[in-house]
Structure formats: structure tokens, C-alpha cells
Specification:
- The structure is a single chain.
- With 147 residues, this protein is mainly beta.
- Helices cover 15% and strands 39% of the residues.
- A six-stranded mixed beta sheet has the order 9-6-3-8-1-10, covered by helices on one side. Strands 2-7-4-5 form a four-stranded antiparallel beta sheet, with no helix packed on it.
- A hairpin with a 3-residue loop joins strand 4 and strand 5.
- The relative contact order is 0.26.
Length: 147
């Protein structure tokens, strides 16, 4: 039996979104989790429950079947979005609220993003793309580190 706090059943997508002109992404909902990490600038995240402004260094976790949309502010803004399948109800206590990442968490996220780029083809500014295409070769263990 595993003593892991969170078990990710499948990583569905890693997206890199950037904007310098206040781009807005129309809303949707889906049957998987979405983890948003604001890397620079800020974004407004709207859910069916509330709206939040998330600044660089902020994490935001959206549970399955939550309607959401995002608008980047007019300054240069960016985010990484991880979509994944997970049956952990313990994540609900972190969902639908901005969480300011510690320096240690930022380093872990930066490493996960870096490992993910080595394993999967990079998706840039395609907010509705779901699916991962593995690279022909990647370092041993890089996919596990990304999870």
C-alpha cells in the first residue's frame, strides 16, 4: 500500500500560456483536474463559484466538472496549466482558492516543468489542447518526476 498523499492516475496535458495584450480564454468544464501556476504577471480566474486574481507565484487548483475561464491582464503574463486524472478527494480542501507558492514549491514546479519539456512535446498558447505526445527519447525517470 502506498503512503503517497496524492496519486496522479494520468497526466493529460501540460500547457504554457502567455499574453501581453489581455487575452481571455472562454470558459469550459471537464471531467479532470486542472492545476494552474501563474509564472509572471497576473490573471483573473473565474469559476462557477467565484472569481480570483492570481499573481506570479500563485497556484490554483480546479476540481473536475468546475466551470472556469481565465483572463490575462494587459501586462506580460504567463502560466503553466497541468491537466490530470486523480481520485483524491483530499485535494478538494485546496481547490478553488489561490495559494501562494513558497520558494521551495516554486523550485519543485520549475523542475516538474523542465522534466515535462524533456518528456513531452511542448504545447504553447493552445488552451484547449489535451493530450500528450511523448518525445522519441527522454531521460530515464523524467516522466515519473513530472508526475
Amino acid at each position: 500500500m502506498s503512503n503517497q498523499f496524492i496519486t496522479i492516475n494520468a497526466l493529460l496535458s501540460i500547457q504554457h500560456l502567455e499574453s501581453s495584450d489581455g487575452i481571455s480564454f472562454s470558459g469550459n468544464s471537464h471531467d479532470f483536474w486542472k492545476f494552474i501556476y501563474i509564472t509572471k504577471g497576473s490573471a483573473c480566474i473565474f469559476t462557477d463559484m467565484s472569481s480570483y486574481t492570481a499573481h506570479a507565484g500563485t497556484l490554483f487548483l480546479l476540481p473536475p466538472n468546475t466551470f472556469h475561464q481565465a483572463t490575462f491582464n494587459k501586462e506580460s503574463s504567463g502560466a503553466y496549466v497541468f491537466s490530470f486524472a486523480c481520485n483524491e478527494h483530499s485535494l478538494l480542501s485546496f481547490a478553488n482558492q489561490p495559494i501562494l507558492a513558497t520558494d521551495c514549491e516554486k523550485l519543485l514546479l520549475t523542475n516538474a516543468i523542465s522534466e515535462g519539456k524533456q518528456v513531452f512535446l511542448h504545447v504553447y498558447n493552445e488552451p484547449y489542447f489535451y493530450g500528450l505526445q511523448r518525445r522519441a527519447s527522454s531521460p530515464i525517470g523524467a516522466e515519473q518526476l513530472t508526475h
